[in-house]
Amino acid sequence: MTVSSGRAPRSAVTRTAARLRRLPLLVWVGALVIVLVGLTAALGGFAPAPDRGRPVEVGEEILLHRWRVHIDGAQLLDDTYENQARDPRIRLTVRLEFVGQESECCLNDGMLEVRYAGRTADHPNVAYIEPRRTGGFDPDVPTTQHFDFYLKTEDPLATPPDSVEVVVRDERPNRSPLWKSWVVSHAVASVQVPCPDERRRR
């Protein structure tokens, strides 16, 4: 005749829990990281951010690391002669104020980008500056610049856009030990700007 010891046999769940308690701490940490990564991906945390920044209104201040920027207007221009190849461009009017510590020659190339009808225009030329100047930007001295974004000559623009999207990018310091400079980084803001057709071919 068998005499019971009075103890109930341990269940499979209890044995599994005991084994889990004996696992090293690094295993637990790794499992937690995997769970968090999975949740972040499922919620869209790793989806690429829209490359346009936050939407702002025409004329609204956009504060960057070294600049205050206001996108004030745009127009489609072409003043070439009738017997010449077309040279359309979008002229962007921008109020700028340099807020860095030292004078700067110009806005970094690539900080302004114009998007229209599924196309992109960047690397503008400076048409003129108000007030007129030949030197650089002194800190806290506002100016107005007119940038010409030249379009591809093969782009007929039979139906010119009613508006263009202007994307403004910020800068970050270049960490090179050889020289101190700033490089263009992420998009900060985007502005939908009316763009009237002011082409006057001569």
Brief overview:
It contains two helices and ten strands; from the N terminus they run H-H-E-E-E-E-E-E-E-E-E-E. It is mostly beta strands and 202 residues long. The chain has two domains: 12-42; 54-194, Sandwich (Immunoglobulin-like).
What would you note in describing this structure?
The structure is a single chain. The chain has 202 residues and is mostly beta strands. It folds into two domains: 12-42; 54-194, Immunoglobulin-like, CATH 2.60.40. It has helices spanning 12-21, 25-42, and strands spanning 54-56, 61-63, 67-77, 89-98, 112-116, 119-121, 125-130, 143-150, 163-173, 182-194. The strands form two sheets. Strands 1-10-9-5-6 form a five-stranded mixed β-sheet, with no helix packed on it. A five-stranded antiparallel β-sheet has the order 2-3-4-8-7, with no helix packed on it. β2 and β3 form a beta hairpin. The chain is extended, with a radius of gyration of 30 Å. The protein starts with 11 loop residues before the first helix and ends in an 8-residue tail after the last strand. Mean pLDDT is 77; it is low at 1-8 and 40-49.
User: Major beta sheet, specifics?
Assistant: 5 strands, mixed
Q: Give, in spatial order, the strands making up the sheet with the most strands.
A: 1-10-9-5-6
Helical region count? 2
**Share of helical residues:** 10-25%
CATH architecture of the largest domain: Sandwich
User: Would you identify the regions where 5 or more consecutive residues have pLDDT less than 50?
Assistant: 1-8, 40-49
SSE pattern, N- to C-terminal: HHEEEEEEEEEE
Radius of gyration: 30 Å
Q: What CATH first level of the largest domain would be assigned?
A: Mainly Beta
Our estimate of the beta-strand percent is 35-45%
The CATH topology of the largest domain, please?
Answer: Immunoglobulin-like
